[in-house]
Amino acid sequence: MTPDDQTPHLTFLVGEEKRLAEIISRAEIEPLLRSALAAGFSRASVLDDHNLPICALGDQPMLLAPVIPEIGHALYVEGEPCGRLVLEVAEISSHYQAVALVIRDALQLTVNNNLKRMLTTEVHTSIVQESYEQLVISNRSLAESESRYRELALDLERQVEKRTAELKTAYAHMLQQEKLASVGQLAAGMAHEINNPNGFVLSNLNTFRKYITRFREMLEFYNLLTTRDISLENLRRLSKERWKELKLDFIFLDAEELLKQSMEGAERIKKIVADLKSFAHIDEAPDADVDLNVELERTLSVLAPSMPADAAVERCLAPLPRISCNPGLICQALMNIIQNSLSSRETGLCLRLATALEGGSVVVTIWDNGCGIPPEHLGRVFDPFFTTQDVGKGTGMGLTVAREIIMSYGGTIAIDSREGAGTTVIIRLPQESGGR
Amino acid sequence: MIEFDEQNKRLVLKLVYYGPALSGKTTNLLCLHDRLLHEGRGELMMLDTTDDRTIYFDLLPFFYVAPSGFKIKLKVYTVPGQVRHDATRKAVLQRADGVVFVADSQAAQMNNNFESFDNLEKNIALVGLSFDRVPLVIQFNKRDLKGIIPEDELRETWGPTGLPVIMASALQGWGVVETFRDVVERTFDAADLRLGLQSRFGVDRGDFVATIMRIGQEDQ
Q1: Which of A407, B70, B77, B185 could form a disulfide with B201 if both were Cys (CB 3.0 to 4.6 A apart)?
Q2: Residue B135's domain is classified under what CATH number?
C-alpha cells in the first residue's frame, strides 16, 4: 500500500494494547457509579492501571478523616487486570458486597463488549481503507490506460488517414503506369508494323538506284553513238545489242513494279500513322461526341498487328447515338478488353463485337470463345494487379483501368465467363453522361 | 511484535493461526483454552461469526511474568479462512511473531491447502514480514477423519520445505498443545535473538514455555 500524502491515513494494528480509559468512557461509567451512591455507598470510583481515577463520584476524600472501608474489584482487559472499581461505605455488609459485584459485572461486560466493538471497527476500517486505496490505484491505472487508448485511437485514425492517402496516390500512380505500359505495348506493335513496309520500300529504292545506273549507261551509249559517223543501220543494231546486254526490258518492267510496291508501302505507313493518331485522338479535344462503333473499329485496326492470323471477327453493330466522352480513354478501355480476348486462345479465335441501344444506355458486348476465367478468379478480375499471366507479361491492371474509365462516365462493366467456353464483357454507358 | 516497552519491561507478541476455511483454526484455540490452565491466560474472545464460521478473528491471550519482573503477553489469533476475507487476514497478520498453518488432512482439501499456503506467503510479504524469518509451524489437522492423506506422504511432500510438520486432531484434542509448544518455542527464540530476552531481561526460556504451557490437572 502506498497511500497518498494527502489522504488522511488511519492505521490500526490488530491487537494493539489498550488502556481501560481508551475502552470505556466516563459517560458509560457514571450511571453505574451513580446507582452505587443511590444504593448507599458514600463514594464510588473507577481507577486505571496507575490508580488514577477515570471517574469518581460521592464524598470527596478528606485528609485526616478516619479511614472508610472500601470494596475493591479488579477490571480486566483481555484477561489482564487493567483497573479497579472502588466503592466506599461506612459499614460493609453482604448487601453492599452484592451490589458491588453487580456493578463490577456490569462494568466488565461493558468493557468486553466495547473491546469487541473496537476490534471489529478497527478491522473494518483498515479493510475499508485498504479497499479505498486499491480503488484509488486501480482508478488511476484505469484513467491512465483510458488516456493511452484514447491517444492510440487518435493515432490510429491519423495512421489510417495517412495510409489511405498513400494508397490513393499509389493507386493513381499505378493507373498512370498502366496507361503508359499499354501505350508502350502499342508502340512496339506499331513499330513492327511500320518497319515492315519501310523495309521493303528501302530495299526497292536500293534496287531502283542500281536500275538508274543502267538507264544512264544506255543514254550515255546513245550520246556516244551520235558523236560518231555511223550508219543508221549500224546504230540500230549496236543500240539493240546494248539494250539487250543491259536487260533493259526486264528492268523497266521491274522498276514499275518496285515503285508501285513502294507506293503501297508508303500508303500503309500513312494509314498506320493515321490510325494511331485517331486512336490517341491527338487532334481532338479531351471530350467529344463519340460514336462507339467508330471507336471500336479504330481499336480493332490498331490491334490488327497482334490479331492471330486465323482469327475471325464478327461485327453486329447497331447505329448508335453519339455520347460525350474522351475518345482516347474509351479506346483505351476497349483495347484493354479486346487484348484479353486476343490472348485468350492461340488458334481458332472467334471474336464477336456487338453494339446496341438499350433503354437510354449504349451497350457494347465483346464475346470470345477463349479459355474463359475460372470461377475462383471471376470475383477478382477487376482487382488491381490481379493477373494469371507470367511476371512481366501482364500488369494485372488492364481491367482495373477499363473499369475506372467506364465508371468515370457513369457506366458499368460486367463480366460473364465459363472456363474453357469463353468470356463475355458487357459495357453500358449512359447516353446522357453525367460528365466527369 | 505488537509492543516492546523496555522501560516498563513489557513485551506483547502475536501468534496467528492461518489456513484454509474449515481447517479447524478456531477449534485449535478452543482446545488450547480447555487444556491449558486458567492462571496463565485470559478468556477466549470470539468476535462475530456467521454460521459458526469466523469472519473477523478469535483471540486467546497468555501472560507470563518473569522473576525479574519482565512481562510477556502472548496474543494468539485466528484468521478467517474463506477466500473472500483476504483483507481481514492481512490485517490480522500484521506484525505477527509466529504463524501456525492449520492444513486440512483430507485428500479432497489438498488444493485448498496449497492455495491458502500461497496466500499466506503472499500476505506475509504484503504486510512487510519476511517469509524466511517468521517462525512457521505446519499442522495437519483432522487426523481422526477417513479419506485423509497418509502421514508419510505428507512428510514426503512437506519435508523438503524444512518446516516442522505436526499431525493433530483438534476435535479429539491431540497434537494441538504440541503444535502450540513448537510455535511458542520458536517464537520465543526469534524474539530472544532480536531483543536478548534471556541475557538482558532475565527471562528464562524453559520457565516461560512451562508457564504458558501449564496443563490442567485432569490432563497431567
Answers
A1: B70
A2: 3.40.50.300
Is there a domain that residue A11 lies in?
A: no
Q: How many separate domains does chain A show?
A: 3
The answer to whether B125 contacts chain A (CB < 8 Å) is no
CB B85 within 8 A of CB B56: no
Residue A5 lies in a domain: no
The alpha carbon of residue B94 is apart from the nearest alpha carbon of chain A, in Å, by 7
One-letter amino acid identity for A213? T
E strands present in B79-185: 98-104, 136-141, 165-167
Q: How far apart are alpha carbons A245 and A107 in whole angstroms?
A: 162
Residue ranges of B 64-93 with Cβ closer than 8 A to chain A: 73, 75, 77, 87-88, 90-92
Nearest CB neighbour to A13, from listed B2, B48, B63:
B2
Residues 6 or more apart from B211 whose CB is under 8 A from it?
A: B40, B64
Q: Say if A200 falls within a structural domain.
A: yes
Render the burial of A99-115: b for 16+ CB within 10 Å, e for the rest.
bbeebbebbbebbbebb
Yes or no, beta carbons of B3 and A76 under 8 Å apart? no
C-alpha cell at A6: 494527502
A130 to B87: CB separation less than 8 angstroms, yes or no: yes
Chain B residue numbers touching A126 (CB-CB < 8 A): 87, 91
pLDDT tens digits for range A169-214: 888 787 777 766 766 766 776 777 788 889 989 999 999 999 999 9
Three cell numbers, residue B5: 516497552
The grid coordinates listed for A154 are: 487518435
Amino acid at A74: A
Examine residue A158 and state whether it is found in any structural domain, yes or no. no
